[in-house]
Specification:
Blueprint (H helix, E strand, L loop, with lengths): L2 H18 L5 H9 L20 E4 L2 E3 L2 H14 L4 E5 L5 H8 L3 E6 L2 H14 L4 E4 L12 E6 L8 H5 L1 E12 L4 E9 L2 E10 L16
Parallel strand pairs: 3-4, 3-6, 4-5, 6-7
Antiparallel strand pairs: 1-2, 7-8, 8-9
Bound molecules: S-adenosylmethionine.
Amino acid sequence: MQDAEKLRRQRLEMVETLKQYGIDNRRVLDAFNEVERHRFFDRASLTYAYGDCAYPIGFGQTISQPFTVAYMTTLLVERVPSGKVLEIGTGSGYQAAILDALGYEVYTVERIDGLKEMACRVFTELGLDIECRLGDGTLGWPEKAPFDGIMVTAAAPKIPGPLLGQLSENGCMVIPLGTYESQQMTVVRKHGDAFDKEVFQHFVFVPLVGREGWDDDVF
Ligand code: SAM
């Protein structure tokens, strides 16, 4: 079987696995079918591209498990179907590409230069119109605010204040909140000066390191 056909079949199998795990949002499943996850892996690691697991991408970081990406994306899509979204923690760029496939206007911030460069290169190769920048994502991207959605893809000890300030009215933030060992997926929605909070299942993410996150020297 040709490599491309093999990878396409593996992608279909990944989507079937997501369905078995309870992901049933049609738009989300279509985006997972559309975005070629293997494009975010180096050639030597292609065989791991469609397994339902996190995978190292260098610099001590990981591309998140497909289920985790699908779970967070579903929480966002169900509350904010369209608009402008800020992702904190570009990593490989896969989550940003999924958001792009869903039709959002996507901005993404990464604190590690090597990862930001790799992700931007893939966005260019794929012709994706995603704006990425290097920086401390706990401070958001004030020049581009407000955002209808904010997705934090690293473990946060608290909700970063600057991100709350960059949500639009009725905007939602999806963020794993908790300790270094375990976090609960949390959705925060802005209503005027108030914020509603919904709490979901536990996950384990790499830490959000920055002024409004974990200290750099703890790790
Ligand atoms: N969304 C990524 C993907 O699709 O591959 C996976 C994200 S990985 C689990 C978490 C990422 O958050 C890492 O790349 C890490 O360097 C980044 N990160 C941690 N703290 C950050 C911060 N303050 N600002 C921006 N990125 C941060």
